[in-house]
């Protein structure tokens, strides 16, 4: 017999039945056919026999052992191994040991999570930022976020779900970006289970479930009047503004593409989605959002038509979308034209961030990407020029006072103004043409 029996009964007839059920020869072949063991008391069918035998004894397979060395349990004749082998699964004792170890780890992890969470809560209660030192893109995003959630931004809390009006497609990415820059804080109390967890011993947060808030200014506190003060600035960071607009415009175009894919029953795979985002972003450096909508409409329709052909599956047809977008952009570059009369659908919101871009820069879905990027470059240039002119003006006043040449210097400056030069250019020309009036 290749099994070791552990009896759970003292009934001689049941013990005999179990021995006959498991009896084998030296080749591992069962000696008795199941139907020959029946009838036995109320048992009439062979299918009932294995279940009954399991109730009266435990069969340990001598050819099947756990990694710990314990024999594995055989629930029926088909489980018995004919040659020795190690089990791929743990025995019952090992399972119980693993469960106890897992429970101990869970208790220790919960205790560590509570410790780190308490420290995190204390930090969040003391967290402050300096509004006037925030970058241009952050200021615009916060303005749009305030328009989306109102005073809850600083007086209470908000979640990803309550920010759905921030951008058309995926406002969560913008919210997570603000959190990653340390601009937003989180409130652990009252959140959904598993919002906070440990990963490699460090506290982690599922931001899509978290309760978020805007910390107060270190000196001025927080409120709508602080927002007005924060927005009263000259936007000059062209790189930050460019990246924010490209992120927003790409989000706007993506909404339209996904809407068209839903219309034509297209499902874009994650790897293709990343490619599509890259090519859309590239196209927006030249074209308007509305022009990119036209391309999205065309490629989604073409992919749907392609899927009806016998040699194209739905997956293969949808996978052509990134290449089709790139091809349409190449055609537009060669021809120098692209339809721009595509209008925003009724269900397709611009989002509060889109409204902020329109309010402060006059940018909408019909603004070409090239024009938008040039405008941001000019804003940066104006800042550099303003800074340079301020330095020249300071030197102008200081030198002429030191040398007692204020009157002739001002007369020369006035002459430059009368000739039609701007203030900055007039300052430069006055200094260059009259070096004797200034320090060398």
In short:
The chain is α+β, with helices and mostly antiparallel strands and 440 residues long. It has four domains: 87 residues, no CATH class; 132 residues, no CATH class; 130 residues, no CATH class; 66 residues. The chain contains 15 helices and eight strands.
Give a written overview of the molecule.
- The chain is of the alpha+beta class and 440 residues long.
- It folds into 4 domains: 87 residues, no CATH class; 132 residues, no CATH class; 130 residues, no CATH class; 66 residues.
- Helix content is 54%, strand content 7%.
- It has 15 helices and 8 strands.
- Strands 1, 2, 3 and 4 form a 4-stranded mixed beta sheet that branches. A two-stranded antiparallel ribbon has the order 5-8. A two-stranded antiparallel sheet has the order 6-7.
- Strand 6 and strand 7 form a beta hairpin.
- The longest helix has 35 residues.
- The protein is elongated and about 130 Å long.
Number of domains: 4
Determine the strand fraction and express it as a percent band: 5-15%
Helices and strands: which structural class? alpha+beta
Give the C-alpha Rg: 38 Å
Query: Main β-sheet: number of strands, strand sense, barrel status?
Result: 4 strands, mixed
How many strand elements?
8
- Beginning-to-end CA distance, first to last residue: 110 Å
| Overall mean confidence score, pLDDT | 89
User: What share of residues is helical?
Assistant: 40-55%
| Element pattern in H and E | EHHEEEHHHEEEEHHHHHHHHHH
